[in-house]
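Q:
Got a chain?
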Amino acid sequence: MTLDEKYQNLQNILSEFNSAVIAFSGGVDSTLLLKVACDSLGANKVLALTATSPLYPSYETEQSKQLANDFGVRQQFINSNEMELVDFVKNDLQRCYHCKHNLFSLFLHKMKKTPFETLLDGSNLDDQDDYRPGRKAVTQLKIRSPLLEANLGKQEVRELSRQLGLPTWDKQPFACLASRFPYGTRITVDRLKRIDRCETWLRLQNFTHYRVRCYDQLARIEIAPEEIPRLLDKTLRLDLVETFKLNGFDYVTLDLQGYRSGSMNEILPQTDNLAVKCL
């Protein structure tokens, strides 16, 4: 199928619903889904539900508010309370499953108190490449995933977003801040805030793809390989080190392999790697 045919298919899928609730983070996928849902159903028949949590930087929430306002769609917020889940904070290999199952259960409960009928998420075709614990929760709870159903992969989502003039078309992928810790490292609010402040510094320096991985008092920075030379500029480098040390890191390292999604899974045996990839 051509991209135009897949786009038409997506519109047809969405047009089947009387109304829809979109699990809306403000990321590339959920923004496209929200936009096309509004175009297909009318903004008055769509509700954007957004989670608030220490797992999500405040600027992501603010960007989601701006997008929902631009689309003229109603938005509501839910505190997802992951830090109260014992199975989540211990950060085992199923962390992503526990997180998503909790989140979508809350969304479904919220939806029952509204006149809206169907909960949709922004999973796309590439999310089928590996078994992902988060996808397992979506399937168990019978959440619909129209982008996936329309056979749209990530690059196609970006291209459609570009054609529709969405500002998120080239936005870097975002995984919740819990993905910055090795499995088995307990997740705490303090650790999440440290990561948030350090990644905010990188964002404000206009780096486009980055992660700060936390190993107790050591930070491992991943940025796009083409951006490494700029990070090594003396003035910027010294400012970075000072910022990270003020946020509790004794050692600051740069990963020469550069940014890549799911790097915390690389040390796992291949069978486990395929079973838990969710970042």
Notes: The beta strands are 20-23, 46-52, 74-79, 118-120, 210-215, 218-223, 251-254.
